[in-house]
Amino acid sequence: MTNTVKDCRVLTKGQQILVELNQAISEIKNLETHCCAEHLEPLRHCAETLELVAIDIASVCTNGACWQQIRQMLTDAGFEISEELDDDLSQIYSGSDSCLD
């Protein structure tokens, strides 16, 4: 990742946070199998919100780099990126100056 923030502690801590967020999301999804139907939607909302937080953290840690670099940081932490999300964020980040390298 060429576009990381200058302080490597931010990148290291960000990677740790992403791994822990991914574990938390997995635990939330596991809860879905044990909860009643009325709790499924709130649990899914929590998981989706944490996924968005993870994307924001990866963006900060890569100093707003290209989606490919952000995606790499997320996948290194164990996140699975859906094809739809990948396509959407590729388009959003395609206008970024850091993607023109």
Order of helices and strands: HHHH
Number of strands: 0
Uncertain stretches:
none
Estimated radius of gyration: 15 Å
Shape call: globular
The residue-averaged pLDDT reads: 87
Measured by DSSP, the beta-strand proportion falls in under 5%
Please give the alpha-carbon distance between the first and last residues: 12 Å
Q: Count the helices. How many?
A: 4
Main structural class: mainly alpha
Measured as a percent range, the helix fraction is over 70%
Reported for the largest beta sheet, the result is: none
What count of domains describes the coordinates? 1
Describe the overall structure:
The protein has 101 residues and is mainly alpha-helical. 70% of the residues lie in helices and 0% in strands. The chain has helices spanning 8-32, 37-61, 67-76, 83-93. Helix 2 (37-61) crosses helix 3 (67-76). The model has no long low-confidence stretch (mean pLDDT 87).
Short summary of the structure?
By secondary structure, the chain is an all-alpha fold. Helices cover 70% and strands 0% of the residues.
Key terms:
101 residues, mainly alpha, 4 helices
Topology:
Layout: H1 8-32, H2 37-61, H3 67-76, H4 83-93
